[in-house]
């Protein structure tokens, strides 16, 4: 039973990361690009930034977030590597 709960928590975490990444890359970079291009930061339109850089930065941040949360889950379920 504990393995099933561990797997469900893992899938929930993966799903959350995928939803965040989809929202940033597809939502901000494609669907909301016209709205976000009205905002400029450092001389660049925000929609362009999300399409070109933002999704990559968010993806890398999600990798670190996933690794950190999985370490917490591993300790919680007693499957961590000491």
Report what the structure shows.
- By secondary structure, this protein is mainly α.
- The chain has one domain (2-77).
- 80% of the residues lie in helices and 5% in strands.
- The protein has three helices and two strands; from the N terminus they run ααββα.
- Strands 1-2 form a two-stranded antiparallel ribbon.
- Strand 1 and strand 2 (44-45) form a beta hairpin.
- Helix 1 runs antiparallel to helix 3 (46-77).
- The longest helix is centred in the C-terminal third of the chain and has 32 residues, at 46-77.
- The chain is elongated and about 50 Å long.
- The two termini are 23 Å apart.
- The relative contact order is 0.14.
- The mean pLDDT is 92.
Please provide a brief summary of the model:
The protein is mainly α and 82 residues long.
By DSSP, the count of extended strands is: 2
Low-confidence stretches: none
What strand order characterises the main sheet? 1-2
Q: Distance N terminus to C terminus?
A: 23 Å
Helix/strand order: HHEEH
Radius of gyration, in angstroms, nearest whole number:
17 Å
Largest sheet: 2 strands, antiparallel
In total, how many domains does the architecture comprise? 1
Mean pLDDT: 92
Portion in beta strands = under 5%
Q: Helix content range of the residues, please?
A: over 70%
**Category by helix and strand content:** mainly alpha
Number of helices: 3
What shape does the CA trace take?
Answer: elongated
């Amino acid at each position: 039973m504990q393995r099933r709960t561990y797997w469900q928590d893992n899938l929930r975490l993966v799903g959350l990361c995928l939803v965040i990444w989809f929202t940033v890359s597809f939502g901000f970079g494609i669907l909301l690009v016209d709205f976000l291009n009205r905002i400029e930061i450092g001389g660049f339109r925000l929609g362009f930034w999300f399409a070109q850089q933002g999704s990559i930065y968010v993806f890398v941040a999600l990798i670190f977030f996933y690794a950190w949360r999985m370490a917490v889950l591993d300790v919680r379920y007693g499957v961590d590597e000491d």
